[in-house]
Design a protein that fits this description.
Distance between the termini: 32 Å
Mean pLDDT: 88
CATH topology: Peroxisomal Thiolase, Chain A, domain 1
Number of domains: 1
Shape: globular
Helix content: 25-40%
CATH superfamily: Thiolase/Chalcone synthase
Number of strands: 2
Largest sheet: 2 strands, antiparallel
Order of helices and strands: HHHEE
Radius of gyration: 13 Å
Strand order of the largest sheet: 1-2
Length: about 70
């Protein structure tokens, strides 16, 4: 919200899946933007935050990737 980005550009899965820790980024990519990622080249900004003010950010060009469907049990 502070960056002023539209909600459609900032997918999230916290409400649906809770805190999935290190799996948050791949879960969100698979659950929210899988079809877009499979459709063609994309540039994706990934940013994750953790305990103790740890964080990581990267900019990734995804051209051909395998995103299998989400399996929930």
């Amino acid at each position: 919200k502070k960056l002023g980005l539209p909600e459609a550009k900032v997918p999230g899965t916290l409400r649906e899946y809770g805190n999935t820790s290190g799996a948050s980024l791949p879960v969100t990519m698979t659950a929210c933007i899988r079809e877009q990622l499979l459709a063609g080249p994309n540039r994706v900004l990934l940013c994750g935050f953790g305990i103790g003010l740890s964080w990581g950010t990267c900019l990734v060009d995804i051209n051909q990737a395998c995103f299998p469907p989400m399996i929930e049990s």
